[in-house]
């Protein structure tokens, strides 16, 4: 089937879906395959549940006229999304980076929503499936699209840019994330910079943090719109980050609900992009000040007389270091519960040891390290304990002994350290 024909069928549907458990009346179902599942088997079920069309790539499952046989369902999803972007002809802002992608995306969205009808990536649906699904969730009511792009190996950002065809782009930072897939920090920089290459080739606008020398160097010959303390298009400065990040912009004081100096650049990017799209300053201030983080990202939670900084959505050496340095500035009794950092490959041993060495050197009263990688480290500090797994931690550490304290809970997604909350 030609992509234009497929697009016409898509326009006749209410939405796209890849999960029969969530089918709604009028959906277009894409029968994706995985290592442990074959969506083709559920095409008939999708139709029975109300899907208008289902796409399969195995002929034996194309049993009725509205089950459409294509060569490859995933490629059809991606090609349809790319065609749809051109059809809508709306500006797309793409962003990637090692840390802060989702928070920055949410901040950009709340700022631009003050003036425009926006559609943004839901949660972190930022891969080769999530990006097409986000594009296909946009319609003629959408005025600006905001696409988050994640990657753990080279050429992935390039591929996602080919699908989304962004008109603007922003890279939050270059840190020690997914070192195993990228082959080290140089690989991270090269991989993330694929977005720059795409935007520069197509003569598009790149938003940059003028205080980040890598961003400045990598966009030397590009069309840029910059923000920061240094010479830039928009001047934004950090006032302080205690207890929450407060910034100065255009003679305005903006007080956020985000902790940590590491969130300053995330907030500044959203302000600058709002400025570029001519959102008025009072609306930018309102958007930033009313945004509250969710999904285990720098959330502040009170449990009895304890204050918990829940930052358990993900972790890598760069974000872990930033979180610890910020946490040290907290007042009163401080306890950090830190979980393993994943996808570090051969660097796992040294990076976990580096975090242990840093954490034990800081003014933090108690350190609890959870996970196999942290368990292998050498710790010479009476204030530190290590546990091989969360279950061992749960059995051997009495959480009720923690009172009148501030806690930092941080680890990679696979550690699911938000489970600590259930122990109180």
TrEMBL record:
<dbReference type="GO" id="GO:0047480">
    <property type="term" value="F:UDP-N-acetylmuramoyl-tripeptide-D-alanyl-D-alanine ligase activity"/>
</dbReference>
<keyword id="KW-0961">Cell wall biogenesis/degradation</keyword>
<dbReference type="GO" id="GO:0005737">
    <property type="term" value="C:cytoplasm"/>
</dbReference>
<dbReference type="InterPro" id="IPR000713">
    <property type="entry name" value="Mur_ligase_N"/>
</dbReference>
<keyword id="KW-0436">Ligase</keyword>
<dbReference type="InterPro" id="IPR004101">
    <property type="entry name" value="Mur_ligase_C"/>
</dbReference>
<dbReference type="Pfam" id="PF02875">
    <property type="entry name" value="Mur_ligase_C"/>
</dbReference>
<dbReference type="GO" id="GO:0008360">
    <property type="term" value="P:regulation of cell shape"/>
</dbReference>
<keyword id="KW-0132">Cell division</keyword>
<dbReference type="InterPro" id="IPR036565">
    <property type="entry name" value="Mur-like_cat_sf"/>
</dbReference>
<protein>
    <recommendedName>
        <fullName>UDP-N-acetylmuramoyl-tripeptide--D-alanyl-D-alanine ligase</fullName>
        <ecNumber>6.3.2.10</ecNumber>
    </recommendedName>
</protein>
<dbReference type="GO" id="GO:0051301">
    <property type="term" value="P:cell division"/>
</dbReference>
<comment type="function">
    <text>Involved in cell wall formation. Catalyzes the final step in the synthesis of UDP-N-acetylmuramoyl-pentapeptide, the precursor of murein.</text>
</comment>
<comment type="pathway">
    <text>Cell wall biogenesis; peptidoglycan biosynthesis.</text>
</comment>
<feature type="domain" description="Mur ligase central">
    <location>
        <begin position="96"/>
        <end position="273"/>
    </location>
</feature>
<keyword id="KW-0133">Cell shape</keyword>
<feature type="binding site">
    <location>
        <begin position="97"/>
        <end position="103"/>
    </location>
    <ligand>
        <name>ATP</name>
    </ligand>
</feature>
<keyword id="KW-0573">Peptidoglycan synthesis</keyword>
<dbReference type="InterPro" id="IPR005863">
    <property type="entry name" value="UDP-N-AcMur_synth"/>
</dbReference>
<keyword id="KW-0547">Nucleotide-binding</keyword>
<dbReference type="GO" id="GO:0009252">
    <property type="term" value="P:peptidoglycan biosynthetic process"/>
</dbReference>
<keyword id="KW-0963">Cytoplasm</keyword>
<dbReference type="InterPro" id="IPR013221">
    <property type="entry name" value="Mur_ligase_cen"/>
</dbReference>
<dbReference type="GO" id="GO:0008766">
    <property type="term" value="F:UDP-N-acetylmuramoylalanyl-D-glutamyl-2,6-diaminopimelate-D-alanyl-D-alanine ligase activity"/>
</dbReference>
<dbReference type="Pfam" id="PF08245">
    <property type="entry name" value="Mur_ligase_M"/>
</dbReference>
<keyword id="KW-0131">Cell cycle</keyword>
<feature type="domain" description="Mur ligase N-terminal catalytic">
    <location>
        <begin position="15"/>
        <end position="68"/>
    </location>
</feature>
<dbReference type="InterPro" id="IPR035911">
    <property type="entry name" value="MurE/MurF_N"/>
</dbReference>
<feature type="domain" description="Mur ligase C-terminal">
    <location>
        <begin position="297"/>
        <end position="377"/>
    </location>
</feature>
<comment type="similarity">
    <text>Belongs to the MurCDEF family. MurF subfamily.</text>
</comment>
<dbReference type="Pfam" id="PF01225">
    <property type="entry name" value="Mur_ligase"/>
</dbReference>
<dbReference type="GO" id="GO:0005524">
    <property type="term" value="F:ATP binding"/>
</dbReference>
<dbReference type="GO" id="GO:0071555">
    <property type="term" value="P:cell wall organization"/>
</dbReference>
<dbReference type="InterPro" id="IPR051046">
    <property type="entry name" value="MurCDEF_CellWall_CoF430Synth"/>
</dbReference>
<keyword id="KW-0067">ATP-binding</keyword>
<dbReference type="InterPro" id="IPR036615">
    <property type="entry name" value="Mur_ligase_C_dom_sf"/>
</dbReference>
């Amino acid at each position: 089937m030609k992509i234009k024909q497929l697009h016409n069928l898509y326009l006749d549907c209410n939405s796209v879906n890849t999960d029969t458990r969530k089918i709604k009346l009028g959906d277009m179902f894409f029968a994706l395959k995985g290592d442990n599942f074959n969506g083709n088997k559920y095409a008939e079920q999708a139709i029975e549940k109300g899907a208008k069309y289902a796409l399969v790539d195995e002929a034996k499952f194309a049993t009725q006229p509205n089950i459409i046989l294509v060569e490859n369902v995933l490629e059809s999803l991606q090609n349809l999304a790319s065609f749809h972007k051109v059809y809508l002809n709306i500006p797309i802002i793409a962003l990637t980076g090692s840390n802060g992608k989702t928070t920055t995306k949410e901040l950009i969205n709340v700022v631009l929503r003050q003036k425009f009808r926006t559609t943004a990536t839901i949660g972190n649906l930022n891969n080769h499936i999530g990006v097409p699904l986000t594009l296909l969730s946009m319609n003629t009511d959408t005025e600006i699209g905001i696409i988050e792009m994640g990657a753990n190996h080279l050429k992935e950002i390039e591929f996602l840019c080919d699908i989304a065809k962004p008109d603007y782009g922003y890279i939050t930072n270059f840190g020690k994330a997914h070192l195993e897939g990228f082959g080290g920090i140089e690989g991270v920089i090269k991989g993330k910079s694929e977005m720059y290459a795409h935007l520069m080739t197509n003569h598009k606008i790149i938003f940059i943090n003028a205080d980040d020398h890598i961003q400045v160097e990598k966009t030397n010959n590009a069309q840029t719109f910059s923000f920061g303390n240094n010479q830039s298009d928009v001047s934004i400065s950090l006032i302080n980050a205690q207890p929450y990040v407060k910034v100065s912009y255009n003679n305005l004081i903006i007080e956020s609900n985000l902790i940590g100096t590491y969130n300053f650049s995330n907030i500044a990017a959203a302000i600058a992009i709002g400025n570029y799209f001519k959102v008025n300053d009072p609306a930018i201030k309102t958007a930033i000040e009313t945004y509250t983080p969710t999904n285990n990202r720098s959330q502040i939670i009170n449990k009895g007389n304890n204050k918990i900084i829940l930052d358990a959505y993900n972790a890598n050496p760069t974000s872990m270091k930033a979180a610890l340095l910020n946490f040290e500035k907290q007042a009163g009794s401080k306890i950090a519960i830190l979980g393993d950092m994943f996808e570090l490959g051969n660097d796992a041993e040294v990076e976990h040891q580096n975090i242990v060495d840093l954490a034990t050197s800081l003014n933090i009263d108690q350190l609890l390290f959870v996970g196999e990688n942290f368990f292998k480290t050498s710790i010479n500090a009476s204030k530190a304990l290590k546990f091989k797994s969360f279950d061992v931690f749960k059995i051997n550490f009495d959480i009720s002994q923690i009172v009148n304290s501030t806690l930092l809970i941080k680890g990679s997604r696979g550690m699911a350290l938000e489970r600590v909350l259930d122990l109180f």
